[in-house]
Amino acid sequence: MPETPAVPAARPTPAELSAEDGKLVVLARGARARVAAVEGAAVRDQDGRTYAAASVALPSLTVTALQLAVASAAAAGATRLEAAVVVTEASTLDGAGHAAVRDLAADAPIHVAAPDGTVLGTVVE
What we know:
Layout: H1 19-34, E1 40-45, E2 50-54, E3 56-58, E4 61-63, H2 65-75, E5 81-87, H3 95-104, E6 110-113, E7 119-123
Parallel strand pairs: 5-6
Antiparallel strand pairs: 1-2, 1-5, 3-4, 6-7
């Protein structure tokens, strides 16, 4: 995937995730595992609807999981996101995914989780 600008590192999450954010972790893990993708992501919109996606790496198209989840939400009519999760082997959030979430939410938490579902931290900026 092309390199993207650095974004704020995920801060450790002091408490357990809410049940709704925990659901996003499960959805993101499932999307990743289903196609053995590098990343999986899930977002929740203003109406509580959820969208999950896996990263895509084709010769003519490269999209991060978070970009695709946000695009799915936007295509379904979402105008705001409440929360996002990305499941990845990386320890930081990629810039492209961060920017996609911020297009629909200036302050929604973006939880970064390891493939086993352990939340590594949360980006709120």
